[in-house]
Amino acid sequence: MTAPMEIARRVADAVLYEGYLLYPYRASAAKNRMRWQFGVLVPPGFDTTCEHSSSVTECLLERADDAEVRLRLRFLHVRTRLVERAEDGGHRPVAELTVETAGPAAPGAAAADGVPGGVPGPGTAGEADPGTAGAGAPGGTTTYLSFEEATERETEVVFPVAELLDGERAADVRLPGDRSVEAITGPSGRARGRVVREHLPLHAVVRARAERVAGPYDLVRLRVRVENVTGWDDPDATREQALRRSLISAHLIIGVTGGAFVSLLDPPEWARPAAETCRNERTWPVLVGEPGHRDVLLSSPIILYDYPDTAPESPGDMFDATEIDEMLHLRTLTLTEEERRQARATDPRAARLLDMVATLPPELAERLHGAIRHLETPARDDPAPRWGSAAGPGAAPWDDASPAGSRAAPPPDPAPGAADPSAAPWDGPGDAFWSDLAAGPGSSPETDTVSVAGAQVARGSRVRLAPGGRRADAHDMFLAGRTARVEAVLTDLDGARHLAVTLDDDPGADLHRSHGRFLYFAPDEVEPLDAPGPAGPGVSGGMPDGPGPGAGTHAEDAGDMRAAADAPERRDAP
User: Fold this and answer.
1) Chain centre to alpha carbon of residue 357
2) I need a surface site. Which of 4, 176, 256, 319 has the fewest CB within 10 A?
3) What crossing angle do the helices spanning 348-359 and 337-346 adopt, rounded to 10°?
4) In whole angstroms, how far apart are CA 265 and each of 13, 221, 305, 428?
């Protein structure tokens, strides 16, 4: 496997299992009862949930006349695991079955077949033995749970670009159903139940075609459509039933030989018009592999950037690639013995995850705390002084008017009781709170004003929030229309103004104010409600002087028991 394809597979595996099983990795956890959220292609006849049966990837190729494209479709195929209790000469489905073992089970023992938890069986390398069905407990019992597992599926087709330019080519993906039964017996050998696993048949089609892009640059647009064409005629079926005949976490790895892909996220200017005409439905194609190489593309159901990769510090898959591995590792270590037993019984992959966390060497665990990816050299060797510039009041820090070859004098040590400009907002009185945010000595966030719709807005003013369309923070939708108190008028190093505010109805407004943690908006993203109000709680080292007019929480809100999460916080200082 080439290096780009190896990197692509690492990232694709993270996509494939994203959300597969979430902390605390128990089937009984609410977050693990609603699974399979990414890249789901349902049968075309199933319309109960308005999910789609197909995805479309469009991308650009250059120098593609003699190129060949390799399409690798990967997805998960749901396999049900049904536990049945033996009774009255037959079997009855149950959610859980606990049976005695011949002796005390070793910690982490997984199945009636005796395969220790976390040890792959004789099947595909890295996959759990299909016989692994339950989890042992020190008390001499094994628990079996009904749950859904998943099997990796992969198919690959190769097409010369010349053939795709002549017309559409299609490849069938047919997966037959299968069923297996594992007996559950007690210490005496008496049948106690069984575990029934089943895949339902699945039929998909990969369709590909290509067309030349008009213009002088000899570009080719490649279009790949993945369709679930499995028959479906049950209008009353549930989503869980339809998922058994669906492609889960479906994505494509597309390789090219004899050509090169063009980035759709950051195309060269000459290719931008063509890139903007590409239409991708329920996929997000990005370049993968070593940065600069353009021979492999990942069409993902999750938004990524070009050349994504997994963190080298990550010890293994925790099924939550956007979460912090260190936090998941530490939280997993806090699971009780009963919670670990349930997690092991939930899924063989969860059992391997628990083993990985429990045996992770300290030096590898320490790597999860953080890493420096790269260091950069300062833009100039002799930066202008931050304070004491001789350019005059209101000048930016870099407008140093001192003679050539000299430096402005550093600020004197603060007198006893005075603020230290380098102190944290709550460590000193008065202007120290804003020293790190002001553009220079001429700025005063506590007294500056800015004109908004003809009104002067300053600290203490009340405004209504109207987040602008240029914002990318989804939380802003929860802030639109809410009222807030202006805590400061800030000026950044480019001279742009920003308003630091606290929400009127936020029960934690006083706490945010004391720590100097605010929401930030541009002047054109607020509507004035009144003229600048009284100073309200003064900021002395960031601590409020006491209750008064203009405080973020009104008296009538004292009984408001809404969680602080209802007041989303923007922590990105301007």
Assistant:
1) 21
2) 176
3) 140
4) 22, 15, 7, 46
The one-letter amino acid code at 416 reads: P
Helix (H, G, I), strand (E, B) or coil at 145: strand
At residue 256, does pLDDT exceed 70? yes
For the chain, what is the total number of helices (H) and then of strands (E)? 10, 25
Question: Is residue 365 very low, low, confident or very high in pLDDT (cuts 50, 70, 90)?
Answer: confident
For residue range 411-468, list pLDDT tens digits in order. 455 455 444 444 434 343 444 444 444 445 567 888 889 999 889 999 999 999 998 7
Report the C-alpha dihedral over residues 429, 430, 433, 438, rounded to 10 degrees.
-150
Alpha helices by DSSP H, listed for 30-184, are 161-166
- How far is 35 from 21, CA to CA, in rounded Å? 8
Single pTM value for the model: 0.64
Q: Say if residues 289 and 295 touch (Cβ distance below 8 Å).
A: yes
How far apart CA 118 and CA 353 sit, in angstroms, is 8
End-to-end CA distance of the chain: 46
Tokens coding 67: 């190129």
What contacts 13, CB < 8 A, 6 or more positions away? Answer: 317
CA distance 49 to 225: 21
Q: With contact defined as beta carbons under 8 Å apart, do 313 and 371 qualify?
A: yes
Contact by Cβ (8 Å): 323, 311: no
Report the pLDDT averaged over residues 531-550.
38
268 vs 336: CA distance, rounded Å: 54
Would you say 456 and 529 are in contact if contact means Cβ atoms under 8 Å apart?
no
Tell me how far CA of residue 364 lies from CA of 13, 23, 160, 333, in angstroms.
22, 21, 45, 15
CA–CA distance, 353 with 360 (Å, rounded to integer): 11
